[in-house]
Amino acid sequence: MAKKIALVEDDKALRDNYISALNQQGYDVSPYANRPEAEAAFQQALPDLAIIDIGLEDEIDGGFAVCQMLRSKSKTLPIIFFTARDNDFDTICGLRMGADDYLTKDISLPHLLARIAALFRRTELMNQPLEQADLIVSGHLSIDQKRMTVKWKDVLIELTVTEFWMLHAIAKHAGHVKSRQQLMDDSKMVVDDTTITSHIKRIRKKFVQLDEHFDRIETVYGMGYRWKVQ
Known about the structure:
By secondary structure, the protein is α/β, with parallel strands linked by helices.
């Protein structure tokens, strides 16, 4: 069955171009021109992945509201911001709201398709049978790869799909430094350095909110990141 992608974009020409390109890849695309239209549809059924522009018609930050609404309904549904706004403020805001990726409209179509495919590959792993090898335990940390759940001191920490796989890549080999390229390879991501840094900061913050003394994710300057062993 074709994967269902919601495309929330107010520019008709761009919307039509991407509908055509995504259809050619075998995706079932549902387009929406504004926030009310998209949110009404999402109240009825959720897509398998959402691509959202930030500015929607007369709402400068309408896409942020759509993202928040989707994330409240599903913690793991892949969400991509696809926008002309490439400043750090909007990127960080988008990631803080739970988006899995933030792309600017100047990237190539193959690049966009690669990111979509990577997110689908990761979510599909959730449907595979659970095996002992899929469990990672390191001190107070426990990761269930198949269910995509993370616990710290037996308390569940809610992570997005991208955050989960980035943490998994670091914690799987505790004590070893993972370069940014290795993080991308291990977690099947295709992102830039700024996006990786933003994700790491978000992951740390979620642990610190639970445990103010949390210090296990270490930045090794000039090299990458590692999960410190106790």
